[in-house]
Amino acid sequence: MMGALDRLHSFRQTDAWLYSVILAAAGLSLVASFVLSVDALLLAANPQAALGCNINQVLSCGAVGVSWQANLLGFPNAYLGLITEPVLITVALGGIGGARFSRGFMVGVQGIAVFALGFAYWLYSQSMFVIGALCPWCLVVTLSTTVLFAAVTHLNIRDDNLFLPPRVQQGLETWLRLGLDLLLVVLVLFVLIAMVVVKYGAALFA
Amino acid sequence: MSKQEPTRQPSDPTSKRQQLRLEQEQAAKEKRIRNIITYVAVGLGAVALIGGIIWAVLTYGSQAAKPIAVKVNTEYTVMAGKADAPVIIDIYQDYICPYCGQTERANQADLAAMVASGEVAVRIHPMNFLDDASMGTKYSTRAANALVSVAKAEPDKMMAFNSALFANQPEENTTGLTEAQIAALAAQAGVTQATIDTFASLSYADFVTNSTNAAFTDGIQSTPTVLINGTQFEGNLLTAGPLKAAVQAAAAK
Hints:
heterodimer; A: about 210 residues; de novo design (two linked rop proteins); about 0% strand; globular; B: about 250 residues; alpha+beta; Glutaredoxin; five-stranded mixed β-sheet; about 10% strand
């Protein structure tokens, strides 16, 4: 059992694993962004359009889609996903293929990840507390962006790419060595999902 | 990890061995902590996943099994007709919900007649969960607030006003009726100006929100939902006839 845990831990530090996680998370977000973009077009053409995810009143893409928060920059937010996710997919495929990226490049990737996370969480909080309707594809983006951010950050800390002060860098490396990153990700995903369940509860199944 | 620089000379083998042992102990300790953390993380994930699946299955199962006999919270409702009428109809509705409008327009003549004859009381559960479907104007809350204001001040005008609101129902994702339009409909239904003047203060907005939450708590899944003496009506609400027949069947029991 100990051996298995150690192998799991070592495996989680490898390029193959980290880039694969980035690939999967970015791929999932891309699919979600695509669906949301198409929905945005349908919604623009006909605000009454019954969208694919109107499971019930709580899980309503329509209500989320027509809010100003869904078009923060003057176009559907999902377009940002269509622009950025393919970049991350390319990076992930390169990494899996054995490419090495310069520190500066990886700092840029980290920048995308930070921006994506901030944006996804802002939207999540808006749809939870302001719009009051949840859209399943947006939740997919929130969860997969969390995983994506964790993997990119893990990679960059492991390779000391972020030009952090030595003490911070060392602290973060200890954090990784102890596997606390895994615990943190599990906790964050748990909280994100639990909040949805607590808020909407049984209404999720209509 | 090492606290000291390793010495080049082989002069002090014991200290070197000690050093090595310390490092090994340190690594072993780290590994123990790591394993505990991993167990917690994996365990938490697994428990959450299994718990979630069980919860989902139970919730889904109980809902599939139970649609009859909903518990009805009546604290935040308004009623037309006599409370001791033999049949009580509960209607859960939102003023911007298109099917609520169709239901009301199809059945309002039957309902008005049955309320007038005293055989039925209609209890309206005004809801505002579609507030976001009126481009920020919260039409659902505004219209429901007006209805509750009328029901509290002039209960005999409530049904007529309710019908007027639905007869002039705005489409979803429009700004809804203006305050002036709502006031005009109320006046048309015979509501006094004194009552109409209270609409703007939205004093029943919380009432409507509480009504919405009470309905969710009671397990209402969509609007319109109609209960006849506490039992959900499953027939066709969108045409006149079936609801009236079901009410008469309930009255005959």
